[in-house]
Known about the structure:
There is one protein chain. The chain is α/β, with parallel strands linked by helices. The chain contains twelve helices and ten strands. Strands 1, 2, 3, 4, 5, 6, 7, 8, 9 and 10 form a ten-stranded mixed β-sheet that branches.
Amino acid sequence: MQPVAATLIVNVYERTYRAALTPGTFDAIVADNRVQIEDRWVLINNVDDSTHARRMAQALMESGEISGFALVEHEIDRALKVTGLTRRALRRRPYFLNYGLVMSITGSEPYVLGWDAETRLTSPADWLTPGIELLESDANIFSVCPRWPATRDTLDQETVGRQGPWALNYGFTDQVFLVRRREIASPIYRALAPASMVRSANHPFSFEARLESHQRARGLFRATHTQVSFVANDLPPVIERQLGGYTWRERLQRRLLALVGAGLARLGSSDPRLRLP
């Protein structure tokens, strides 16, 4: 297996860190991708017992399975400075954004491979080598990912172009993504794209939504590999499941975005900022 110039970063939190930091997890992720990834990091975020999480991560580092680990709360101020944001941008639920900002300053390789702790490829495949080649050859490609789970696969409706096995579209997923570090470690997080906010109505100022807004505002693409797919733990929205439900402001925001979405659907614009799905 050949090495790739990517830093693998897995964000873990209270519900996921125990399983994700079990020995063998990172080796299995790398093996499934059929490449060598030497730079491997854990981000620890929003856990009840950070000492326990650090101890598990330290054991993985000492065994050589990961390169290092970081606590999001310790790195967020530096990440905010690099990305041109202030703490106000973190809003009431910082964990939807802070981990992604810290990813931009974690590790050393020129490409960042963000990987959700509960994500795995449907079957082993090397999509990273051609993905990096695509990012190196085409400045209009912002992010690369495998195809998402069949239970919510809207790729055919979203596709606006093709390059070989890659379907080009304007979405962004934070479950598995490959990006250039220099781009996410820069002030790109204030772009406005109504379609992105509608698509992420549950948390329209999240890391995922902000990067999709940037893509749409700049007319950049996500390239999705049509022959490699991933599966994830497809749970109900976390706000409904664990966080006590939506506040009245969030409920109002969702209603307003639903109205915006209905208007965009009727408009049927091809402008990436306004295009649905």
